[in-house]
Structures are given as structure tokens and as C-alpha cells.
Write a sequence for this structure.
């Protein structure tokens, strides 16, 4: 009975089981992981990756990938700090500039992919390179400015006993999850990812759906970039790099298929938690950076294999 | 081995008076004298032979990559030095864009352009060796600086000694803690040899009472250091000191302590303005907070240029010029801190505040 329930849970949302299991293992190895302060710390830090990965989920669901998220995060950090200049009165224009820039990047990605039929991995990788180069040119290698004190609250403050960044992340992600489940647009994204030709024949405006998906992906990366900017308060040209790989890892560990059409935004919440938990655990347990990379790589491969096995058992 | 001390700007300093450091309003020339004159550079007894060349010179500089703040400051100060000497030489800069093989091609291009001297900051300490040897064979003096090049197939080197820098900050941290306490260490990019050498130097200075809880990579980025430190804070109830080879690591780690409502502890770093500003703002509230920093002077490139000019005028120069690490701590940080400039500025620079403002805008 209990075993059956456990196996249902494992099949429906294996990543949540993995999140809990990893935490248990981590806590056994290092009891410090059980401190409430450390749990809140993990939630606070996951928020940045979580938002970027939510956007990445949309790209993967359409059967594509968005490797420009790293550049978008860096661009956001640079624009936000250079427009804000540490002044509270300039928060609104700074945030608006970032959102507009993000939307433009996403729409250009979408047009390259949907209209000009450039492979998503190439289009977004090229965009990533352009954005990083633009950040270098814009700053001349010497970024200036700073985030405003009032703005930093969303990255460093807390509300209702929870980190403000985590609240932003969960609320926004649940909103996206709802849209994916309950709106026509959401169903279209899944349809395009499952079979673009079939979707088009059924009357789905596939091009617009792709453009919208990449625009949303970039916008969510902007939001993630704003959160990490509020967390650190300073510009940094290398700030986005970490998201290039980890955003894809979080989505894949969450069970979204790289082939498109299969997966969910809520599972990516767990995927992002898993990745951050793992980094945090390896930090606390004194694992070297090299070993961290190896573990991360092994887990990507393992999770894809595991999902395939679970998937085939489920349909059998 | 004896090291002869070469005071870079003795003449200028005598002219200005010794008390001038850090007091006068900086104009270009004065600031120039100030930063280099207060430094000591150890020249090796082994000398490199000069070659007399006449006419207007062309000096090539193969920059391994550009784009971070330090490189930008370094390149800008080299360009203003070249501008001030526009009658004597032209500076030709090529950018390797972080690519090892592109830099080798860059150097070969400079050789075929027949430059009179060749400066470089190598992307790889080994990959540039054959190219520099080729330059030497073509009669072009080669002057790598900032990062070392393997072997001896170059003319003169200018830089710092990471081991000695690490020993200086390590000694300072050991002193702050009275030789007893639990510390964490944060380094730069994973696997980089600079951090490894600094850390090796630091460890030689720790008393037996210093316990190293953890050594982590933080990529010289505030955000990474803050995230890593937040984990370390959870893992270790007592952290008495933070050793870092970069000021961004220290600033990020200290901000994590602030976020966790823990009192600030002694930390080490380099000449990252953000760390000095943080120390200035927080030292009153945190009696245990101390800093011990050693800079990586962004005027190394200017010394390299002057060395090239010397060699080309037929003078001999020391084969190795190693800049002495000078400790920046609570007693002298105000001479370096630039309160009105961004955190990202590396303050041991020849650039004036005006030039820096222009650069960081």
C-alpha cells in the first residue's frame, strides 16, 4: 500500500523525491543543512536560478533551447546598475529599461528561430555572444553604478519570515505554470513542442507562439537578473555566466524533455531547488569545484536516463 | 642571491619632496610620480642587454584579453603614457580575446610588422614561448609582464610575486587574529595558478593556532563569494577570519556576514575599491573588523613600456623586476580609497580621479 503510494509519487514527480532525498543525505553528512537559516538561504539563492530556469523551461517545451539567458542576466545587471546609480528614484526607469531590452532580445531570438529558421542552439548562442560583447563595449570593461538601497530589498530582504527573492520567484513561477496549464497559449506551446507541423495544420499560429515563448524566456531571465542584482548590489560582467549551464540542468533534472512538448514549469521549481541544494551541499561538505562540475554532469546524464526509464515503465 | 633595490622614480620624488604622497591634488604628472615612487621594485642581479635603436620607435603590445576592470585600467594608463611620449614611440595594441592561439598569431603579426619591442600579458605561460623565442631571434626585445612566461626566452619580466603577496596578506591575517582562530579562504577562478601561489604563500605565515575550515573558489566575483560564504556561515558557527586573494571575494563574503547578522571579521584582499569603502563604512560598528590587502598595480604596463624604452636606448635592465608587496591596512587605506568612484575601481593606479571617472561612466 505504502510502497504503491511511494511508487506513484516517484512516477508523478520524481524530482521532488530527489529534492527531499538529497536534502536528507546532505543533512546526514552535514547537520548544518538542517538549520532554518540555511534552508532560507538556499531558498533565497535558488530564486535567481529558479526564474531563469522557468524561462528556459518554455524554450525547451517548444523543442528549442535558450542559451542567451546568461547574456540577458549580465545585460540586466549592467543596465540596472548603470541606470539606477544607487538612487531609489531611478528604480522604475531602470527596471523598465531592463524589461524592454529583455523583450527585444527575446523577440529577436524568436524571429531568428521561427521565421528565419535558424537552429535555436545557434541563434541563442549567437545572441549570448552579442549580449556579452555589447556589455563589454558599453562598460568599456569598467562597469559603474550600483543598485539602489530600496531595490536591494527584493534580493536581500524578507517578508513573512521568507526571503523576498524566493517569494518573487514562487509567485511569478506559479503564475507562469498556471498560464501553461490553463490558457490556450500554454497548450499551444506544448503542441508546437510536440509536433510543430501538426500544430500548424491544426491552426496553431506556430511562429507567434515561438516568438512569444522566447520573449517570455528572456523576460524571465531579466527578472532573475534583477533579483541577483538586488542580492549583490553591484555590477559584474561575469554575473550571468553561471546560468548558461545551470538553467538547462535545472529544467532537465525537473523532467522537461529536450525534445520538446513534455515537462512542466512546477517541476522546474524542484529542478532549480535540486541544483542549488547540490551546490550548497558540496560547499558545506568541502567538495572541490572540479568535483562539483563532475557531479553536475553525471546528474544531467543520470536524470535523463532515469526519466526515460520511468517514462517507459509508466506507459507499459 | 642579492637583490638590488631600484627606486623607480627617485629623481621625481626628490623634486617633489617626500611628504607629498597622497596629499596633493593629483594632476597627471604628479599622480604618476606618486603611485610608482611609493613602490619598491626588486631587480634581479641578472641583467638583460639593451639594443640601441634610433628614430621613432614602434612598440607592440599583445594583450591576452581585454574587458575586465584591471586590464582596462592597465591599458588606459599605458595609452596615456604612450600619448605623453608620442614623439618617441607609437604603441600598437592587439587583443588576443582570451584565445591562446589568437595571441600566438597576434605576436607573429607584430614580429612581421617588425616592431622595435614587444610587450605581452600571456594567456598561457607556455603557449607564447615559441612566439617570443621567434621575436628574440628576430632581434626584438620581448617584455612579458603581469603574468609569467615559462623558461628564459624573453628579455625582461615585470610583475609581482604571488607567493610573496600571499605571504604578506597571510601574515597580516595571522597578526589580526593573534595567531589563533578559525578561518575560511576564498580564491579566484577554479584551478588558476595565481590563487594557488598566493594561498601557498599565505599558509607559510599561519601560526599553529590557525585552523583553516574551508578553501573555496569564488571566481573574484562578489555574487559568487556571497553565495559561497552564506553556505560556509551555515556550516561553521565560528569564523574568525577570511583570507582572499581578491577584494571582490572579500567584499562578497563580508556582505554575507552582514546579511546573516554576524559581526565582521578580519579579511584580506587586493586594491578593490569596494572593500575599502566597505571597511570605511563598517569599521566603527565592528571592532574586530580589519583589512590587510596587497595590490596588483595596474601601472605594471607603464613600467613595462619604460623598460622597453630603456632597452631600446641601449641601456641594460634587470632580467626580472618584481614589485614589492606593500600592505594596505587600516592605517593607510584612506590614501588608496576613492570614495566617490565605483566599487569596481582598482585603486593602485596611475590614472587620475578624473580619468577614472571618465573610464567608469
Amino acid at each position: 500500500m505504502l510502497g504503491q503510494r511511494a511508487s506513484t509519487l516517484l512516477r508523478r514527480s520524481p524530482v521532488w523525491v530527489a529534492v527531499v532525498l538529497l536534502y536528507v543525505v546532505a543533512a546526514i553528512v552535514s547537520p548544518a543543512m538542517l538549520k532554518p537559516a540555511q534552508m532560507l538561504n538556499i531558498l533565497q539563492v535558488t530564486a535567481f536560478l529558479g526564474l531563469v530556469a522557468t524561462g528556459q523551461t518554455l524554450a525547451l517545451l517548444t523543442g528549442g533551447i535558450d542559451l542567451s539567458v546568461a547574456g540577458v542576466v549580465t545585460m540586466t545587471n549592467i543596465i540596472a546598475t548603470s541606470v539606477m546609480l544607487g538612487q531609489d528614484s531611478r528604480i522604475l526607469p531602470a527596471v523598465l529599461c531592463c524589461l524592454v531590452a529583455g523583450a527585444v532580445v527575446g523577440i529577436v531570438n524568436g524571429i531568428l528561430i521561427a521565421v528565419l529558421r535558424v537552429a535555436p542552439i545557434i541563434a541563442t548562442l549567437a545572441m549570448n555572444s552579442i549580449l556579452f560583447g555589447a556589455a563589454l563595449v558599453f562598460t568599456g570593461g569598467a562597469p559603474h553604478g550600483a543598485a539602489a538601497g530600496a531595490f536591494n530589498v527584493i534580493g536581500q530582504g524578507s517578508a513573512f519570515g521568507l526571503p523576498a527573492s524566493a517569494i518573487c520567484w514562487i509567485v511569478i513561477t506559479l503564475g507562469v505554470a498556471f498560464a501553461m496549464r490553463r490558457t490556450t497559449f500554454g497548450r499551444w506551446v506544448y503542441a508546437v513542442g510536440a509536433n510543430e507541423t501538426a500544430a500548424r495544420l491544426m491552426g496553431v499560429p506556430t511562429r507567434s507562439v515561438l516568438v512569444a515563448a522566447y520573449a517570455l524566456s528572456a523576460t524571465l531571465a531579466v527578472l532573475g537578473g534583477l533579483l541577483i542584482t538586488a542580492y549583490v548590489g553591484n555590477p559584474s560582467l561575469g554575473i550571468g555566466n553561471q546560468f548558461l549551464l545551470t538553467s538547462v540542468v535545472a529544467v532537465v533534472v525537473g523532467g522537461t524533455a529536450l525534445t520538446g512538448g513534455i515537462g512542466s514549469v512546477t517541476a522546474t521549481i524542484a529542478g532549480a531547488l535540486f541544483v542549488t541544494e547540490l551546490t550548497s551541499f558540496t560547499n558545506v561538505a568541502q567538495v572541490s569545484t572540479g568535483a562539483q562540475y563532475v557531479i553536475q554532469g553525471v546528474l544531467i546524464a543520470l536524470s535523463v536516463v532515469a526519466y526515460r526509464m520511468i517514462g517507459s515503465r509508466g506507459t507499459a | 642571491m642579492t637583490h638590488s633595490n631600484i627606486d623607480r622614480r627617485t629623481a621625481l620624488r626628490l623634486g617633489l619632496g617626500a611628504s607629498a604622497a597622497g596629499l596633493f591634488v593629483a594632476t597627471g604628472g604628479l599622480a604618476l610620480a606618486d603611485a610608482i615612487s611609493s613602490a619598491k621594485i626588486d631587480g634581479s642581479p641578472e641583467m638583460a642587454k639593451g639594443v640601441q635603436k634610433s628614430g621613432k620607435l614602434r612598440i607592440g603590445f599583445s594583450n591576452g584579453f581585454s574587458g575586465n576592470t584591471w586590464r582596462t585600467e592597465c591599458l588606459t594608463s599605458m595609452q596615456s603614457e604612450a600619448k605623453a611620449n608620442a614623439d618617441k614611440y607609437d604603441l600598437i595594441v592587439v587583443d588576443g580575446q582570451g584565445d591562446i592561439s589568437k595571441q600566438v598569431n597576434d605576436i607573429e603579426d607584430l614580429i612581421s610588422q617588425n616592431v622595435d619591442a614587444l610587450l605581452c600579458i600571456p594567456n598561457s605561460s607556455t603557449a607564447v614561448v615559441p612566439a617570443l623565442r621567434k621575436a628574440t631571434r628576430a632581434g626584438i626585445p620581448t617584455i612579458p609582464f603581469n603574468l609569467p612566461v615559462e623558461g628564459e626566452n624573453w628579455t625582461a619580466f615585470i610583475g609581482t610575486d604571488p607567493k610573496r603577496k600571499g605571504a604578506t596578506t597571510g601574515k597580516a591575517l595571522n597578526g589580526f587574529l593573534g595567531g589563533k582562530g578559525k578561518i575560511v579562504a576564498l580564491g579566484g577562478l577554479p584551478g588558476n595558478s595565481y590563487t594557488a601561489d598566493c594561498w601557498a604563500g599565505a599558509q607559510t605565515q599561519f601560526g599553529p593556532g590557525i585552523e583553516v575550515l574551508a578553501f573555496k573558489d569564488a571566481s573574484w566575483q562578489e555574487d559568487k563569494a556571497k553565495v559561497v560564504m552564506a553556505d560556509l556561515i551555515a556550516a561553521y558557527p565560528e569564523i574568525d577570519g577570511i583570507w582572499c586573494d581578491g577584494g571582490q571575494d572579500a567584499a562578497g563574503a563580508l556582505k554575507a556576514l552582514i546579511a546573516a547578522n554576524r559581526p565582521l571579521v578580519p579579511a584580506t584582499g587586493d586594491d578593490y575599491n569596494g572593500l575599502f569603502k566597505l571597511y570605511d563604512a563598517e569599521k566603527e560598528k565592528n571592532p574586530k573588523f580589519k583589512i590587510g590587502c596587497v595590490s596588483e598595480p595596474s601601472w605594471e604596463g607603464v613600467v613595462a613600456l619604460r623598460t622597453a624604452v630603456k632597452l631600446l636606448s641601449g641601456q641594460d635592465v634587470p632580467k626580472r623586476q618584481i614589485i614589492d608587496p606593500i600592505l594596505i591596512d587600516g592605517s593607510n587605506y584612506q590614501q588608496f580609497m576613492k570614495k566617490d568612484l565605483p566599487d569596481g575601481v582598482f585603486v593602485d593606479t596611475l590614472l587620475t580621479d578624473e580619468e577614472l571617472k571618465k573610464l567608469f561612466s
